[in-house]
Amino acid sequence: MAGTDSEATLRQIYRADGTALLDSDTAERLGQYRVLPFSPRRANDSSREAAPGADQLPLALLRPNDYQQPTGILTRSGKIVTNPDWDDMSTYDAAAPLLVKTRKRTVGAIDAEGNWILPPTYAGIGGFKGAYSWARTPAMSRDEAVLIDTRGNTQKLPAHVEVNGEKINGDLLYFYKQDDRRNRHWGLWNIRGASIAVAPTLDRIEDFQDDWAKAQDRDRWGIIDRHGKWVVPATYAGSYDLDYLGNGYLLAREPKGKNDSGYRDDYRLIHLPSGKRSVVLHEKPRDLKQGRYLGQGKDGGTLLFDADGGMTRLFDGVPERQDQFGDWIYVQYRSRNGAIDARGNLKVSASSGEFNPFFVQPEGLARVYDGQRYRLMDENGKALLEKLGDGTPLASMQRVIFRDSDAAESVMTDLQGREITRFKGEFTVEERTASEGVVAYRGSGDRYGFVNAAGKRIVGPYFNKLGPLRDGLALARRDQRSGKLLGYIDLSGRYVIPPEFGWAGDFKEGRALVRRDRLLEFIDTRGKTTAIFGLLCGQIIVMDAQERVTWPREKLTCPDAVGTEGVPVPESTKAEQS
Known about the structure:
By secondary structure, the protein is mostly beta strands. Helix content is 3%, strand content 46%.
């Protein structure tokens, strides 16, 4: 193409082998026309490929720049053909034979070389979507029509089919029958076979895509073939649950389970010619062309589906990047996590995302992200209680917390999935605080208490902050009693160590790190100081409860250290901690 910015001019058309189609005379004559290529009808809504018969269309419609000249076509052999009777043709969604409107306002049809296949004696022709079309002669009213083939032969139909017949797809005519309430029930008539393909009992039949169509039977949807056979039973809630991808593959949305807390949809690929159904997929597969698709399985594995419905597992885990180069697939992974035991044996393959939490003890259970969702896993990598959804193990309690999104509740179960108790709210239980047989839960006013493995609330929700129970003590803060200061309570709910710390950590091995009067120190389970941290001579020092320097062992020689040896450290050496 060449020309000005406002309009291009066709100079030449090249065949696939690189040779020129147009001779010099034809190329020059095309300058007298607006060249409008025919856009063939697609095979189906999901395909970019042209429907069968596209090679029986001309290449382009030629509209003369001089309106007194006849309309023409450019044939596939590179010839210009005109006819003074031609007025217009539609270039969009074109199908063979090509419909032509004449200057006398009649309609006929031509082949790819411009020859009349159907003489222009019709008042209207609906358009051929296959071998048949509705047509109307000049003597007919607008609500009358006759069914013809591409040669103009009239097709005989039963009276009830002819009266209630509507659109045509290939050899099939959609028709309906009305019940006593005048509701329409749809069926299919096989024109070529002169027989009923589908009895008029269905609530709806959508357009065929290749050899399959969505159909509604009462309030459920499925897939039928051109013989009226249910290849996918009508068990789906809506037409939108079924998506034809092309190449014989249907993507069906999986129904969500009651305890499925995921926000993403699951799918299955169904190969309609063979009836093969894939494993559950966590996202829509990627089209690799030539009837092949790439998908992600329930466990995050990468799956390849071939043109015959076969499945091959390519990789474990969810790749960060996938690129196709012809028949090759490039795959790049982020870091993946697994688990080894104390002897270095790989117990859980490195195919998972994060562990949150890692294997809690003594239960030996973890909550693991598989690339699509979280699931409960044992130390051998086996998924547990999958039907209950996303579960978090409670350390030391032999219990698991699941979320019931329908009821907006948290559910505590035992390790067999038996329900123990429920909590109002899906995120009420603070699973990370499970320790020594209890776990924190949130009550009214965003305050916290403790519940045990039997589901009994043993400490009421009085605390604005509540940590895990360690060494029999839990970090706690109750704003209305002590403001922002922290202390430690036992399972009676009373402070064992008074709230006098600006910051504090949980107990571990009988001691906790706290900040008191802007100093960091270790305390024991009685609240007694065991070590104080300070700054002297530009380095951290450690003092005992009597404020004697116990570390470093080397003698400090800066001026501030003078006189500190063997006596309590002066107040000026105590470090203020920010």
